[in-house]
Amino acid sequence: NAGVTQTPKFRVLKTGQSMTLLCAQDMNHEYMYWYRQDPGMGLRLIHYSVGEGTTAKGEVPDGYNVSRLKKQNFLLGLESAAPSQTSVYFCASTSSRDRGYFSGNTIYFGEGSWLTVV
Amino acid sequence: KQEVTQIPAALSVPEGENLVLNCSFTDSAIYNLQWFRQDPGKGLTSLLLIQSSQREQTSGRLNASLDKSSGRSTLYIAASQPGDSATYLCAVASGGSYIPTFGRGTSLIVHP
User: HSE on the CB side for A28, CA within 13 Å?
Assistant: First the structure.
């Protein structure tokens, strides 16, 4: 059981380039989230999804787009990277049910993706 | 808008001490509260989850309490060890959708 997997783990981009971060979870979770973590700022929500085919904006959505075409995958795109998007990006997922029972909605995180925009 | 505050921001203690980390939140209409541990360069690992209807949860040397009416939670770590050194974050899930809001964390160092 891999849990939540993020790719790539490290990436260096030039200003103006585009890229996509992939998050994959194998736990059949409905909810998926993309956060960025910056020193002194904590974790801030970029976008989230409550199910396949749905996405919504979080606290800091500008400059990012997302898609959830398949339940297990949540993609985060940077159309034109800027130095301000240098950060560590975390994907997370959760479900309202665990093994058929209503659960406490434990949130599972990926290991993070380190992005540097120069 | 839900706001989550963690105090202290950093803590350094000798091995063996019992310690308390604090988390406060502004909106008491929550689904649950969760405590996480984050090691340097790693993702977050869930430690304890407290449902809104619960008062506390325990796992080994960890005990988390929740006082929803006052908007507070504490994480109690008994007999701290150097391996407990990490950043501890609390997250409160609230809102129409299930949106976790995180505090900025408490950086803990336990020295031998």
Answer: 5
Give the pLDDT score at A101. 47
Give the burial string for B64-83 (b: 16+ CB within 10 Å, else e).
bbbebeebbbbbebeebeee
- For residue A101, list chain B residues with Cβ-Cβ distance below 8 A: none
pLDDT tens digit string along A58-67?
A: 999 999 999 9
For residue B24, CA distances in Å to A30, A38, B27, B102, B103 come to: 28, 21, 10, 11, 9
d(CA B76, CA B53) in angstroms, rounded, equals: 19
Q: Half-sphere exposure of residue A61, counting CA atoms within 13 Å on the CB side?
A: 12
Q: How far is B45 from chain A (nearest CA, A)?
A: 7
Contact B96, B73 (CB under 8 A): no
What are the C-alpha distances in Å from B52 to residues A45, B68, B73, B110?
22, 7, 11, 31
Q: Are B98 and A92 within 8 A, CB to CB? A: no
Residue of A nearest to B50 (CA): A104
pLDDT at A65: 97
